[in-house]
Amino acid sequence: xxxxxxxxxxxxxxxxxxxxxxxxxxxxxxxxxxxxxxxxxxxxxxxxxxxxxxxxxxxxxxxxxxxxxxxxxxxxxxxxxxxxxxxxxxxxxxxxxxxxxxxxxxxxxxxxxxxxxxxxxxxxxxxxxxxxxxxxxxxxxxxxxxxxxxxxxxxxxxxxxxxxxxxxxxxxxxxxxxxxxxxxxxxxxxxxxxxxxxxxxxxxxxxxxxxxxxxxxxxxxxxxxxxxxxxxxxxxxxxxxxxxxxxxxxxxxxxxxxxxxxxxxxxxxxxxxxxxxxxxxxxxxxxxxxxxxxxxxxxxxxxxxxxxxxxxxxxxxxxxxxxxxxxxxxxxxxxxxxxxxxxxxxxxxxxxxxxxxxxxxxxxxxxxx
Length: 369
What we know:
With 369 residues, the chain is of the alpha/beta class.
């Protein structure tokens, strides 16, 4: 597969509903899209880095710079046999995993097209449908929070995840659990707590949460292992799992009992599959986390979620939850049973709407050999 050109595009998409986490409030998304052009074929990738370096040390502007000046030149003009060969081509550049993932995932998309198979099959997926959960931002008002939960429960989502932070946690959990005693419920702290909060976090055991996601420092699994010993609820590791080595170390330390795999966070499909395999060897379930992706990233999350150890509902939800109009067709929809059908057609299974992308583009750069 010869990479003839790589086009970087920044698009700006307003969210249907503002999304609040412990990092702050997001009202719209600046998204870096990667378009690969190869011998008449076009493939796509999406960089999930945020507008600010809050979730990780990457942000869209650093991703654009490193892609334009360091990463894309290492791929353009090259003959690449497979998507899994990309990490070695980018190895000299340390870090910048989200930027690397956008390029690597686009090559996997291209490979699926060249081979004439679905992206899910190329990745090793076995599921024809995936179970969907939903991540709900903080409303900072309990009645409004309950209204948001009611809407998603009625839509059929199989797991409800609540964002939380100190001062907005126990009361909210109690209210939700009182109204819906049997739903699959979890929370996501995005590293907002410290080990000194262990007794407070332990009190959440009464709410029968499926998991508490990354409650402590974003780069830690040692103190998470100490916290896991003090609570009954499973800890789910997110930000601190950057690669398969992290996953192995964390699981051997007992830092958590569930792993959230975000393909951008770990640097691309190759490493995401490796994390999946390590977790499976340890008997630990995984699920696919979301980063407010457009339809390009959402389609690739669906393909990844078809792997066998993605046994818990992920954050891959319907396009309409986030965008008045997505950049793919058909848009991603979720059944009343809280499931998405994994496309079996060639490539990612969703066509990119170039007209929509062009209308949303605020800058672009074409890179050739």
